């Protein structure tokens, strides 16, 4: 701090953190007279992030100037094996021409679907994430990627109830009396929400955490509820049953604003408290107290995590929990309701960003020629299978950016087997020499957010941020959009869209009729750095006043609905849409496919359910190469219960072999009672490079998809554990 104050020659640039985190902090970059980034700090003016940065980003200069930073395009040396880390420097011109001549040849021989882009949220920028997902790939007719690794199961489950994924303003949690963090580790993954929760606590609110592992967040809670993993749907339905039994429901609200509440009530009656206790492993008394407190200590709010949804039955769990606010009439009041994600609130002009229209270019190379109107879609969770099994055509070229699939995708032994294929032409556009970059044929260097322009929305609050570049690109690094535009031109695609600059894309994204973006222009953001969406009230309280349904609008009569975005305009506790999609029209509990209940045979061989959620000092695999943060995380570790440790003769600090039918890894034991017997917890994600035997926890996880939304199932993962040595 003092450093900054004493050096008036430092330039201060308004920007924001681009990483995949709900908080998307407004940030200041401090640059010295030589153009070097000296430090970053939180922008104190932002009312949500309030000038604080997390441990990971507080020393961002360590990441920007990391020894792993890629600075030049490189080509794998002829004769070397994939993964050997044998590369030679080439020019950008050579790189672009080698890539596009290979692509042209592949398209001629096998069609454009033989080319597979793979990307996720290395940056969450509208330009360098969202726009880059469409455009070139649409024009080319390449195989599409279902970006489903993170949120798609949760959004699918939640949307059956409310019609979209929107919900509470996080700043409104300060006004709650009873707050549940359900399957989310806020103290690590959503740090800037904690002050709002503490503010509520200081006014007497109770803070409850529901998690199979006693997290940092649980340590900050007034009440820690520890169900067996994957049983939360039963807990939610059991709570609803008790709420109805005790007459604590809001019948007037249910009558006016929901559909099917009586059928739902009858479904929940299948979860009497004794059965709920048996499924969840919680005591009858605790479930009763939870149901009563949630419905009487109002206003009550739920922060629902994506973490919880990465379970084989994750969509169904989220769906069941999403019904709770309706039953007690929690919507439409301050401090009350539920927050899963804020993303859907941002009225960004998607048409201008994604350019889906380019999918239908009448071109001889277009997928129409290859017998399909729209290209096939590969689920990113199944990239290992896609690379090793997919035919007609097989994937012959892979273009990776904004992601590190070798480390972050499930079933990583299969992913690496695919990446090893000598007949696969892999291009990796990266900032760092990651586990994935090691398998590239061509590596392209990417800018960090300090070096390029972008616009950020957020999945955890209601502010937009402009990221203004603070320093020149390091080495020859280039931003995603610039590289994709160059590739498009070298492919011969003449559409003017491939001349659009980041600024033009941002202006297009903000070009919206929505009152929520009124006055939030490019120029406004250049001056202020950030802006909160122009919500009718602050904090925003969704569903707080009646709105017209489309029929009412057409008839010119006053609104009677609250604006739920389902087909009926009401909360669908009974969902015909779910039924049409092949699901139970009512929420239900299904045991996870890998569990004692779901697969007793497998569970007798592999009796431990391994959860591998977010690590405090890493962000997925990002930051896991920063030495100071590795020190925070110490070693690849696993928390196991005292009972499981005793049975296996394991002491705290022993190295363990953790294995199942998919693979094995070595992790250091932390023995204690943060987990129950039969459950283990290993924070993710170390790089394979820095893990014993070069395998991280994803060597164990399954590429099975969730019940809905095609999501990932990292937490439905049975393993066995035994003592070993390094
Ligand atoms: N420090 C840090 N912050 C991050 C990330 C990171 O890697 N590190 N990742 C970012 C990303 S991409 C995302 S999507 C978000 C995710 O943020 P969160 O939604 O908080 O997700 P996780 O921390 O993965 O998981 C949250 C909790 O879910 C619990 N859980 C697992 N299974 C179950 C279950 O069946 N029931 C219940 N009740 N709980 C369960 C886990 O034990 C874990 O404590 O965080 C973002 N922020
Ligand atoms: N076991 C287990 N695995 C998990 C999870 C879990 O909970 N448990 N969580 C899952 C979740 S929620 C998610 S979201 C995924 C995340 O998976 P990814 O989105 O792949 O996330 P990261 O590991 O952060 O890797 C992002 C990469 O993008 C690079 N990058 C950053 N900015 C740029 C840029 O501007 N351009 C280019 N070209 N590259 C850039 C970074 O250097 C980094 O290597 O991981 C999933 N994997
Ligand atoms: Mo995520």
Can you tell me about this structure?
The chain has four domains: 11-64, 2-Layer Sandwich (Phosphorylase Kinase, domain 1); 74-149 and 347-447 and 469-513, Rossmann fold (3-Layer(aba) Sandwich), CATH 3.40.50; 153-340 and 569-580, Dimethylsulfoxide Reductase, domain 2 (3-Layer(aba) Sandwich); 600-724, Barwin-like endoglucanases (Beta Barrel). Helices cover 30% and strands 16% of the residues. It is built from 29 helices and 27 strands. A six-stranded mixed beta sheet has the order 5-4-17-16-15-6, with helices on one face. A six-stranded mixed barrel has the order 22-26-23-25-24-27. The radius of gyration is 25 Å and the shape is globular. It starts with a helix and ends with a strand. The mean pLDDT is 95. The structure holds ligand MGD (2 copies) and molybdenum atom (MO). One ligand MGD is lined by residues 20, 120-123, 128, 149-150, 401-404, 408, 429-432, 434, 446, 480, 612-614, 619-622, 684-685, 697-698, 701, 714.
Question: Summarize this, please?
Answer:
The protein is an alpha/beta fold and 726 residues long.
Distance N to C terminus: 42 Å
Strand order of the largest sheet: 5-4-17-16-15-6
* Number of helices, where a helix is a run of at least 4 consecutive DSSP H or I residues: 29
Share of residues in strands: 15-25%
- Helical content, roughly? 25-40%
Unreliably modeled segments:
none
What is the strand tally? 27
What ligands does this structure carry?
A: ligand MGD, molybdenum atom
In the CATH scheme, the class of the largest domain would be Alpha Beta
**Mind telling me which CATH architecture of the largest domain this is?**
3-Layer(aba) Sandwich
CATH fold annotation of the largest domain: Rossmann fold
Computed structural class: alpha/beta
Number of separate structural domains: 4
Largest sheet: 6 strands, mixed
The averaged pLDDT comes out at: 95
Radius of gyration: 25 Å
Q: Globular, elongated, flat, extended or rod-shaped: what is the shape?
A: globular
């Amino acid at each position: 701090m003092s450093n900054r104050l004493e050096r008036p020659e430092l330039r201060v640039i308004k920007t924001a953190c681009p990483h995949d985190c709900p908080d998307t902090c407004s940030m200041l970059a401090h640059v010295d007279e030589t153009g070097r980034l000296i430090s970053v700090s939180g922008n104190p003016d932002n009312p949500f992030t309030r000038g604080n940065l997390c441990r990971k980003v507080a020393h961002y200069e360590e990441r920007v100037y990391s020894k792993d930073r890629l600075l030049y395009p490189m080509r794998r040396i002829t004769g070397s094996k994939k993964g050997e880390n044998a590369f030679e420097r080439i020019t950008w011109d050579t790189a672009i021409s080698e890539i596009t001549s290979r692509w042209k040849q592949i398209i001629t021989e096998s069609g454009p679907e033989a080319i597979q882009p793979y990307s996720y949220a290395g940056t969450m920028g509208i330009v360098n994430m969202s726009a880059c997902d469409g455009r070139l790939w649409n024009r080319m007719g390449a195989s599409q990627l279902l970006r489903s690794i993170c949120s798609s199961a949760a959004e699918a489950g939640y949307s059956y109830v409310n019609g979209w994924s929107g919900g509470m303003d996080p700043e409104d949690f300060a006004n709650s009396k009873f707050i549940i963090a359900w399957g989310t580790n806020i103290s690590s993954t959503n740090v800037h929400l904690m002050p709002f929760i503490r503010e509520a606590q200081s006014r007497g609110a109770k803070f409850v955490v529901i998690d199979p592992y006693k997290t940092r967040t649980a340590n900050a809670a007034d009440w820690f509820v520890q169900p067996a993993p994957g049983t939360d749907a039963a807990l939610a339905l059991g709570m609803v049953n008790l709420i109805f039994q005790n007459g604590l429901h809001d019948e007037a609200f249910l009558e006016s604003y929901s559909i099917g509440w009586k059928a739902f009530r009858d479904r929940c009656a299948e979860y009497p408290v004794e059965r709920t206790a048996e499924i969840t492993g919680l005591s009858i008394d605790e479930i009763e107290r939870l149901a009563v407190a949630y419905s009487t200590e109002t206003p009550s709010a739920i922060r629902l995590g994506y973490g919880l949804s990465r379970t084989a039955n994750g969509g169904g769990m989220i769906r069941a929990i999403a019904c709770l606010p309706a039953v007690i009439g929690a919507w439409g009041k301050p401090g009350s309701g539920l927050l899963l994600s804020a993303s859907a609130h941002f009225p960004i002009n998607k048409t201008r960003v994604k350019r889906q229209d380019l999918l239908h270019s009448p071109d001889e190379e277009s997928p129409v020629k290859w017998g399909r109107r729209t290209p096939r879609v590969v689920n990113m969770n199944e990239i290992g299978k896609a690379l090793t099994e997919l035919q007609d055509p097989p994937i012959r070229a892979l273009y990776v950016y904004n992601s590190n699939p070798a480390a972050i995708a499930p079933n990583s032994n299969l992913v690496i087997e695919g990446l090893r294929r000598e007949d696969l032409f892999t291009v990796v556009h990266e900032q760092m020499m990651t586990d994935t970059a090691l398998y590239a044929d061509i590596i392209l260097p990417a800018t960090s957010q300090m070096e390029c322009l972008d616009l950020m929305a957020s999945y955890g609050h209601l502010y937009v941020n402009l990221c203004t570049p603070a320093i020149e690109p390091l080495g020859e690094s280039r931003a995603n959009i610039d590289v994709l535009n160059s590739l498009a031109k070298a492919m011969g695609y003449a559409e003017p869209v491939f001349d659009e600059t980041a600024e033009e894309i941002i202006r297009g994204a903000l070009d919206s009729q929505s009152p929520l973006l009124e006055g939030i222009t490019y120029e406004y953001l250049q001056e202020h750095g950030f802006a909160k969406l122009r919500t009718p009230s602050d904090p925003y309280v969704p569903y707080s006043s009646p709105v017209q349904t489309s029929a009412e609008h057409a008839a010119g009569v006053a609104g009677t609905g609250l604006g739920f975005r389902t087909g009926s305009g009401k909360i669908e506790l009974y969902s015909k849409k779910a039924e049409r999609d092949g699901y139970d029209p009512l929420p239900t509990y299904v045991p996870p496919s890998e569990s004692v209940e779901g697969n007793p045979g497998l569970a007798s061989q592999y009796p431990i359910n391994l959860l591998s959620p977010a690590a405090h000092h890493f962000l997925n695999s990002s930051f896991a190469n920063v030495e100071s943060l590795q020190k925070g995380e110490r070693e690849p570790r696993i928390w196991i219960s005292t009972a499981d440790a005793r049975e296996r003769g394991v002491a705290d600090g022993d190295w363990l072999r953790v294995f199942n039918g998919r693979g094995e890894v070595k992790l250091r034991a932390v023995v204690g009672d943060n987990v129950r017997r039969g459950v283990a917890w290993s924070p993710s994600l170390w790089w394979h490079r820095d893990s014993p035997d070069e395998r991280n926890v994803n060597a164990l996880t399954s590429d099975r998809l969730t019940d809905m939304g095609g999501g990932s199932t990292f937490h439905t993962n049975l393993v066995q554990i035994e003592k070993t040595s390094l």
